[in-house]
Amino acid sequence: MTAVAPEPPSSTPPDRPHCGHGSAPADPVGCRGIPVGGRTACLAHVNAADRAAYLSALSPGADLDHRGTPFTPELLSLLLGSTTADATGGPRLGDARFEGAVFSGDARFSRASFSGEARFEGATFFGDALFDGVTFSGPARFGGARFFGDVTFGEARFEGTPRLGPLACGKRVVLDGAVFQRPVTVEIAARRTSCVRTRWASTATLHLRHTELDLRDAVLEYPVLVAARPDPFPLGRGDSLPEAELSGEEPGVRLVSVGGVDAAHLALHDIDLRRCRMAGAIHLDQMKVDGWCTFATTPPGWNRRFPWRWSRRNTLAEEHHWRVRTAGRSDRAAALGWGTPPRDAPALKPAAVAALYRQLRKSLEDGKNEPDAADFYYGECEMRRHDATRPRGERALLLLHWALSGYGLRASRALAWLGAAMAVTVAVMMLWGLPADDPKPTTTGRQVAAGQEITLVTDSPEPVNPTGPLLERVTGDRWEKALRVVINSVVFRSSGQDLTTTGTYAEMASRLTEPALLGLAVLAVRSRVKR
Q: For a surface tag, which of 110, 208, 284, 298 has the fewest beta carbons within 10 Å of its beta carbon?
């Protein structure tokens, strides 16, 4: 990643006493650090004797005020070491004020304990910031803080923090194993955000930007909302959180995994789920998927293995991984366009992928998202069709259902088969189904002269099969009659047309199959427009 130069310092002095060291025409304010110990300079610019005297007067649990102070790793280590109770423990701090402080190297606060407020508003970290194992008993305030390296809160405890951020990070924000004890709003703009094994002991709202989010094995005891924020975070007075270190990144949120999560309390809003791995999560049917959440889709263009196009639909990342794995080395063309599985992605069987589709389909149906739920029903049926553990009869029925109508979800496929069936029936009627001539009723009788009794009998002769060359049977009149028979058969009606034996059976077959195909087409249309 290309380093981002910091913005030039403001020419407005802070509304408090400040050090002023290094003032110049380009920076008339100079150092903005607050003076320490009644001196006129900040901790970074005070002379060695005064610094030593100040540090020696500190003790564990002391309050600190180093607003605007520039820190090197060595200076920060001296400061925190003065508040450490013993060699093995971490620093113990009361109220700690580092607003506007600048950390030029790695800032290590590991295992520190803040019994009061920990204030880092507007602080800038040019190296990595490590808050591993830190306990924030009071509010941890990082509003407007900027991190050009990684910031790590691994195993940290937030016991009194109602709001974390907004903060911007050019690399990773790591909350692995962190615990949030009270309701919290987290506002982060970062390239990556890791919440592996994070525990939310109360309700939480995560407003995120520009980030790739990992929620593996997170513990959600109460509802947690993860939402993408479309606009930069406001800081007050009309300013927004600078995001220069995130230039070139899409503002959306890309969720990569919810494996091991009880998703009953998870709600997603406007999240990119194209690469999200759902395997290992439970209660996916209760997960809320709202807003404009996007899923992976089938590859565009033509299938390289068979002469047809992939049916356009939403899919899960697990189906992509399964198709790539099952294609094998000798058939990579069949997997072209499907997402390559990561190295740590488990190799799922079709039955497991079908279960994921089934649970998420119910979640979408409960949210009244019928069209996307229909796509997941399609995916479920696809996995069942490829599941070798299922009975052959069931798989054969699924294959037939797929071929005829795309599991009742592809109207074009059902209409194509309907058109083909009607065309075949018309051809059969023209060539063999219609008699050579329409049978004409004939009347026969006898007369008894003595009693003047007359008996008349009218019969319709059997239809005569057409003879002669087949092409001579293709006439406009026969085509019109055949079409009338076929159209009536689509709506379960008899045309009333005299037919040969072949034509009678052809009409019976068409009255059984063609209405079914029409019904499948109507069902497919309904699944796309139902709300």
A: 110
DSSP one-letter string for 384-438: HHT-TTS-HHHHHHHHHHHHHHTTTT-HHHHHHHHHHHHHHHHHHIIIIIS-SS-
CA atoms within 13 A on the CB side of 276: 28
Residues 184 and 254: their CA atoms lie apart, in Å, by: 21
Task: Please name which of 356, 347, 412, 362 lies closest in space to residue 384, comparing C-alpha atoms.
Answer: 356
Could you give the CA distance from residue 22 to residue 361 in angstroms, rounded to a whole number?
63
Name the token pair of 428: 């059969």
Residues with Cβ within 8 Å of residue 461, at least 6 apart in sequence: 439, 440, 442
Q: How far apart, in whole angstroms, are the C-alpha atoms of residue 486 and residue 386?
A: 36
233-239, Cβ contacts within 8 angstroms, sequence gap of 24 or more: 233/165, 233/166, 233/187, 233/189, 233/207, 233/209, 235/143, 235/144, 235/166
Query: First-to-last CA distance in the chain?
Result: 45
289, 364 Cβ separation under 8 angstroms: yes
Question: What average pLDDT values come out for the chain (531 residues) when binned by 10 residues?
Answer: 53 86 87 91 94 93 95 96 80 95 94 96 96 96 95 96 95 97 96 97 96 96 95 86 81 94 96 95 94 89 61 91 76 67 88 96 90 91 94 93 88 86 83 69 59 60 65 73 75 67 80 81 76 55
What pLDDT is recorded for position 531? Answer: 55
pLDDT number for residue 448: 58
DSSP character for 44?
T
How many angstroms separate the Cα of 260 from the Cα of each of 186, 263, 290, 297, 428?
Answer: 22, 9, 21, 24, 60
Q: Which residue's entry shows tokens 């055949």?
A: 482
**pLDDT, position 457:** 58
pLDDT at 101: 95
Q: Is 11 buried (19+), middle (13-18) or exposed (0-12) by CB count in 10 A?
A: exposed
Question: What is the spatial distance between Cα 522 and Cα 141, in angstroms, rounded to a whole number?
Answer: 58
Query: What is the distance between the alpha carbons of residues 114 and 91, in angstroms, rounded to a whole number?
Result: 8
| Number of Cβ within a 10 Å radius of residue 40 | 14
Determine the pLDDT at residue 85: 77
Are 135 and 159 in contact, with CB atoms under 8 Å apart?
yes
The residue count of the chain comes to: 531
